[in-house]
Amino acid sequence: MTDSNRELFSDVSQRARNRMAILHARKERRLNRRISLAEVNRATKVDARTLSKWYKNEIDVYHAAVIAALCAYYECEVSDLIAVGKADEAELGQWAELVTA
Q1: Could you read off the pLDDT of 75-85 as tens digits, one per residue?
Q2: CATH number of the domain residue 20 falls in
Q3: Number of structural domains in the chain
Q4: Distance CA 55, CA 37 (A)
Q5: How far apart are CA 95 and CA 59, in angstroms?
Q6: Looking at residue 85, what is its pLDDT?
Q7: Residue 37: how many CA atoms within 13 Å on its side-chain side?
Q8: Closest Cα to residue 41, out of 22, 69, 19?
């Protein structure tokens, strides 16, 4: 990999963020109950530590199998799960709503 490619991938991974916590909160509201990450683990077969990192937005590597499993579980598109670039006002509002819920 060239230095310029490394810089590109590094820049994208620093700007990419996932919205799993938002999607998780929405699913809990829709079902009107709490959903543990253990339940998500059983349904998706994604490793519990990986789910925890996704939930806390502590990941820097995005594996296609994990993305596919989470999109299927949360019934969303990849663009609903992962965002690249600065957070816009709508997304900041969703985070604020999640924190105050």
Answers
A1: 999 999 998 87
A2: 1.10.260.40
A3: 1
A4: 9
A5: 18
A6: 74
A7: 13
A8: 69
Task: Give pLDDT, residue 54.
Answer: 96
Q: Residue 55 to residues 5, 7, 18, 19, 99: CA-CA distances in angstroms?
A: 28, 26, 8, 8, 13
- The DSSP code for 96 is H
Q: What percent of the chain has pLDDT over 70?
A: 70
Local structure of 6: helix, strand or coil: helix
Domain around 69 = 3-100
Which pTM was predicted?
A: 0.74
Distances (CA, A) of 43 to 7, 39, 63, 70, 72: 36, 6, 18, 10, 10
Angle of helix 20-31 versus helix 48-55 axis, rounded to 10: 100
Beta strands 82-84 and 16-18 are antiparallel
* Beta carbons of 26 and 87 less than 8 angstroms apart: no
Please report where in the chains the tokens 């829709």 appear, as a residue.
30
| The predicted structure's pLDDT at residue 77 | 96
